[in-house]
Each structure stands twice: as structure tokens, then as C-alpha cells.
Amino acid sequence: LLLAEMVGRRVRSGGYAGKTVVLTLRYSDFCTFSRRMTVKRYITTGPQIHEVAMRILDGIRLRDAVRLVGVSLANLVRGRAQIPLFEGERKGEELMLAMDRVNDRYGEFTLTWGPLLGGRKGRVVPPELEAERQ
Fold first, then answer.
1. What does the angle CA 26 – CA 134 – CA 125 come to, to the nearest 5 degrees?
2. Does residue 129 register a pLDDT over 90?
3. Rounded CA gap, 58 and 40, in Å?
4. Is the pTM of this model over 0.85?
């Protein structure tokens, strides 16, 4: 969920939406592979991206310990926002925008989803910092 939320924030901040979620896994022997799934509607939120990534993961039979997990969104379009039809969807979109404004002002994950409050296991390195490490 943390990775998916990081992807969602980056996508929304650029005004993009995507239809294809890509899950990348690397085993301890550095063998790396990716799987992707395309959905019918454009998505931008962490929970939406997370749901698709988990469906991909459910279809993979892991053979060894995993040392890296990556989540990305592909099949992107810019400025393609469909007005939600149902009130619940509209409220969810308004909530997401409010969370983004608070996090933009006070720092990443000032407001976050409940499952992420338990603390982070492992280490998450955003792509922009990963490039600096190499």
C-alpha cells in the first residue's frame, strides 16, 4: 500500500492517470521479472493501484525470498479526469485531493491510510533517491 500510495501521489501531482499496474519483483539471486495488469478505467489513487498490484501478486507463485518489490503505473494519459457519477466516488475523490493538499503542505504521509500507521518494515527508497545512490 505504501508503494502504491507513493505512485498515486506522483501520478496525481503531474495530472496523470493510468490503466496498467506493473509489479516488479527481484529475488535474492537478482533475478528480476515484472507482471502487469490493465484495468478498464483510469486510476490514480493508492488503494486502487494497491488492489490491482495485489491481484497480480496473488497470481504469482514465488520460488524464493524477494529482495525488491516495485510498483508502477503505465498506459498514462494527462488531464483525463472523468467526473465521478456516484456521490461516494465524488467524496472519495474530494478526500484524496484534501489529503494531497495536507501532505503537500506538511510533508509526505502526514495524512495516510490506517494500515500504514503500524510502522514500516523494511526500507522504501523512492526512484529519485535510488538514482542518487547508484
1. 55
2. no
3. 19
4. no
